[in-house]
Amino acid sequence: MSARPDKRRVAASFSRAAGSYDSVAQLQRDVGRQLLWYLPLSVQPERWLDVGCGTGFFSRALTDWYPHSEGLAVDIAEGMLQHARQAGSAQAFVAGDAEQLPLRDGCCDLIFSSLALQWCADFAAVLGEAHRVLRPGGVLAFSSLCVGTLQELRDSWQAVDGFVHVNRFRTAEDYQALCAASGFRVDRLQVRAHRLHYPDLRSLTHGLKALGAHNLNDGRPAGLTGRARLRALAEAYERRRQPEGLPCTYQVIYGVLQKEPQP
């Protein structure tokens, strides 16, 4: 499995993007809504945890779904937390990392995390922390990104140069193996493709930058990308144009895992 980006770089990038994030986050909203619908009807948490809460969009949704529950929003990016606090999307806001949650054992009944865990290098640690902070019978519901995400952009860059221009993601098989070994009961683990279309390359790359999700990997080219290379990229991507526009595919894995109830 390829290494994930440096967490400090991730936090800084998403903090900078907090003000623009919601304006370009259609995919994130679609994926998060789908994850909400995958939550078991039997889940009625006393306390829920939104890990990687971002601007608090789904913390607000969870508050609507569970109006009598206490909500806790966690994010590694302080800029996102400030935005979520202003929106009043939960009862408490904590700066924290999914790999080392600053929470006591058995303190919540539901962990919801949509399109955040792909930035974590140690997904086994994420699962271990979720298992630790959930009460018996608690549920972890997550969505994350798999290999194949932004493949059109990756292939187009490959035709231009050999640098790493697109973020790396785990394989679905990695997720399956880690979830199977986590101690959770796996109720759902499936991959769905989500495809967006853009009128031109500039719109696509602007959207990635506004989300804070542009290239964060080691091995990315230093400095500005030259005009000649951008023209070559645009020409390579144009060969993939569809009637709806330039395609941009995200391979999203959805997981619903349950901590075994006490006998």
Summarize the structure.
Helix content is 37%, strand content 23%. The protein has 263 residues and is of the alpha/beta class.
Report on the architecture of this protein:
- Helix content is 37%, strand content 23%.
- It is α/β, with parallel strands linked by helices.
- The model is unreliable at 17-23 and 212-224 (pLDDT under 50).
SSE inventory with pairings:
Layout: H1 7-16, H2 18-21, H3 26-37, E1 47-51, H4 57-65, E2 70-75, H5 78-87, E3 92-95, E4 108-114, H6 123-133, E5 134-145, H7 151-158, H8 172-180, E6 185-198, H9 201-211, H10 227-238, E7 246-258
Parallel strand pairs: 1-2, 1-4, 2-3, 4-5
Antiparallel strand pairs: 5-7, 6-7
Helix pairs in contact: 1-5, 7-10
Backbone CA Rg: 19 Å
Q: What's the helix-strand series?
A: HHHEHEHEEHEHHEHHE
Task: Kindly state the number of beta strands.
Answer: 7
Give the DSSP E fraction (strand runs of 2 or more residues).
Answer: 15-25%
Mean pLDDT: 85
The CATH superfamily of the domain at 7-150 and 167-197 and 251-258 is identified as Vaccinia Virus protein VP39
CATH architecture assignment of the domain at 7-150 and 167-197 and 251-258: 3-Layer(aba) Sandwich
Using the coordinates shown, work out and report the CATH topology of the domain at 7-150 and 167-197 and 251-258.
Answer: Rossmann fold
- Percent helix among the residues? 25-40%
CATH class placement of the domain at 7-150 and 167-197 and 251-258: Alpha Beta
Separation of the first and last Cα atoms = 37 Å
Overall morphology: elongated
Number of helices: 10
Largest beta sheet: strand ordering: 3-2-1-4-5-7-6
Q: For the report, how would you describe the main beta sheet?
A: 7 strands, mixed
Low-confidence stretches: 17-23, 212-224
Classify the secondary structure makeup into a structural class: alpha/beta
